[in-house]
């Protein structure tokens, strides 16, 4: 037994000597880029509404838990014999019914992402056009404007897939650079009078639970971990080396990401008052669009616009690629019940998919549903997929029993918090 332990320790020591490469750096950028999106630019609004003390408590709970749940998720992926999509991995562990159920949950997560980003794009772009004097009225109320913007973005996403992949790295560098610069530029506008007094313990506890999903969504990039794991498994002959590299990239990505987000969020929260945060909430716009309204200086305006466009639009493009394939799959499944699959006109199917998605997203945006509230609603779904299912695997599947312990218990508890957190909205 001692010889096995010694061998294991020797292998770990050898793995630590494996250098970081440009390929690893590319995945670090993609992980960070996946996380920086609507969650990042909306979280300062929630901080402004609930106060800095609530946010400190929320991120002390959410950020370590987010790291642990992604780490556990990655480890459950790495133990599978065949490394494919996560629903297939679930099928290997628990059977096809579980795999199909998880596939449905993932589709709902994609729908949630598309709704979030399409709403953010329309409302924020309309706010910018009004702020900069391009339009007199807010165009987000116009159905024609919504159709035009969404049609253009979806056309680009569906036609320029290879181009989108090629520019993703530089776009992430732009996003990260602007976030850091914005945090620095906001420092002269800090006003510590914006820090609210510490609330009563009842309000504090409630608001922390309501803010946990925002902290989680500002830092989570679980959607990209399985593609990363698959890429390393294909690249490395040794499964253990592939696992070591994937886990190391995840760790480095998370540390860099959290450092950036905390600085950015605190800088914004010191610069925007409660009243301004409330206006952003009521106008359904992000902290960046609000900053362009209230903080003087062309540099801040230019950077907020660039960041919002790069963060939200690239996230929209990234999610759309998977969403389009999922919608096509559903349509094919329905159509082939009436005609043979080899008789399906795939060109017409692509056009039909395009029109369906434009119509669906236009209808959703026209409802004017709050992005902030929609984050609350989605947290139970992420709690189930990201936390509860991996924990269930750890306790159900024999080969995953080695991951039982404090980390799994913390992830289970955090998953339950994500599931119940929206219900505390009723106590506001």
UniProtKB/TrEMBL annotation:
UniProt keyword Ribonucleoprotein, yes or no: no
Subcellular location: Cell inner membrane
Residue ranges crossing the lipid bilayer per the database entry: 21-45, 51-69, 98-123, 143-160, 172-190, 210-232, 252-274, 299-323, 344-367, 373-394, 406-424
Entry-linked Gene3D superfamilies: Amino acid/polyamine transporter I
Domain of life: Bacteria
Keyword Transmembrane among UniProt keywords: yes
InterPro entries reported in the protein's UniProt record: Amino_acid_transport_2
Stretches of the chain forming a coiled coil according to its record: none
Alphabetic keyword roster: Cell inner membrane, Cell membrane, Membrane, Transmembrane, Transmembrane helix, Transport
Record's bilayer topology term: Multi-pass membrane protein
Protein name: Transporter
